[in-house]
Amino acid sequence: MRKPTEDGPIVRGVCVALTIGFVVLFLVMPLLTVFSQALDKGVEAALDALTNPDSLSAIWLTLIVAAIAVPLNLLFGVSAAWAIAKHDFRGKSLLVSLVDLPFSVSPVIAGLIYVLIFGMQGWLGPWLREHDVQIIFALPGLVLATIFVTFPFVARELIPLMTDQGRDEEEAAISLGASGLQTFFRVTLPNIKWGLLYGVLLCNARAMGEFGAVSVVSGHIRGQTNTMPLHVEVLYNDYQFVGAFAVASLLALLAIVTLVLKSLLEWRFADEIAAAHRH
Amino acid sequence: MSLVIDSIAKRFASYAALDGVSFHVPQGAFVALLGPSGSGKTTLLRILGGLEFPDSGTVRFADLNWLGVPARDRRAGFVFQHYALFRHMTVAQNIAFGLRVRRWHKRPPRAEINRRVEELLGLVQLDGLGMRYPSQISGGQQQRVALARALAIEPRMLLLDEPFGALDAKVRKELRGWLRSLHERLGITSIFVTHDQEEAFALADLVAVMNKGRIEQYGTPQDVIRAPRTPFVAEFLERAPGAAPLA
């Protein structure tokens, strides 16, 4: 006897086999290739490639960009979700679509927008040059492009969660005498902390891995404006395969760590996460 | 400290939730707002709690312009229909919340807060459940936690939105008697919203029968039952089978 929602053994078998086949072919195999290519000439060669000044600079730059972009997006994401989920106002649905915009716009376009605005020939170019501020081909441009691309992660994670939780607890807090800030830090934030953590993890993974938008604004100056993904490309185009794959392995490891952290959180706090969703 | 509600009107986008509501609640009275869903009773309650604002009309309470007092300063103990307990806090933390968020010069010391929490747990007959989380106790117990949390702030009035709505019939009857005796003991001006006339007549000193944003009749349960003033009230009273609740 099987449950009415369960399919027959053949259908089930085919679906499972297809899924596993797909995952192995498109996810596991490439990942293994990356690691094996990195270690092709031995561990030492891979480590050397990682510790040369250009690679170190790329790793450092990636960390700095993420360290600026992720906290800012945490702030933007929480305030956007707060505004959308807990308040009613004119143009709300438009704002929701705008939050999603970075997901639907090609990252290259995101980069180009900033070049158009802040580049030498851009709208603000002359003014910026006069005041000796460099945005494009420098850290600020990288951060701006990364923020644009990773903006939706935190907000997307929180909006459904906060909408689902409603305003009851906030209203209760206010009627008990809490101020707006107290309500946010004592009631709203504890209720969304797991969703927030997911959002930040995903946001961080994408911030470190972003290629397209960052590529346009970076200028690819080795040792200065190359982030890890850009550095991989440069090394690869120079036929330095061990170096390219060594840096790529580091990026892949980051993805794996993110995944493991996410699963650990889900496993460790399954009860609390379920409780936060329950009304 | 009587409550005077005068010509309150409130429109939502498509309909009038309240259409000129006026009545007077004597100090310490227990008043029921009775009516079908959509009659505006919850909106009126939320206005009294400061969670909603009317388009026009005034409310005076204890000689204050009540609508000019921000919700957090009203000390109106609100018991929500689904209790709205803080799910990440224990029962004790829920009850202590209103005391803990007070400005520092008005905040009681920790020991005093703990003492008050214990006292309130005793009052709502939940001794020993302080360390539980809301999801670990029954609906009737959650209801009483919500009430204790509202009482913790020494409310100037109590506002209860369908206080028994989410409970089964047996628990409902028990809690009803208990709430009435609690009201007699504390004497706080209380207003509760219900669509259940039996409940309204059994509990309240005064009943306001509402329909489509207006008050159809306002009076003691006896008066309303003996002499329904409008066809709506007569019909509404007839609708519930076996409703001869008066003792």
Structure, explained:
The complex is a heterodimer of chains A (279) and B (247). By secondary structure, chain A is an all-alpha fold. Helix content of chain A is 80%, strand content 0%. Chain A is built from 13 helices and no strands. Chain A has helices spanning 9-38, 43-51, 53-86, 92-104, 107-118, 125-130, 139-165, 168-175, 180-209, 212-218, 228-237, 241-268, 270-277. Chain B starts with a strand and ends in an 8-residue tail after the last helix. Chain B is built from 9 helices and 10 strands. In chain B, helix 4 crosses helix 5. Chain B has helices spanning 41-49, 71-74, 91-100, 110-123, 139-152, 169-186, 197-203, 221-226, 231-239; strands at residues 3-11, 16-25, 30-34, 56-61, 64-65, 76-79, 157-161, 189-194, 206-211, 214-219. The relative contact order of chain B is 0.18. The radius of gyration of chain B is 18 Å and the shape is globular. In chain B, the strands form 2 sheets. In chain B, strands 6-7-8-3-9-10 form a 6-stranded mixed β-sheet, sandwiched between helices. With 247 residues, chain B is of the alpha/beta class. The longest helix of chain B has 18 residues, at 169-186. The A-B interface holds A 168-169, 171-179, 182, 186-187, 190-191, 272, 275-276, 278-279 and B 49-51, 71-78, 80, 82, 84-88, 97-98, 101-102, 133, 135, 149-150, 152-153.
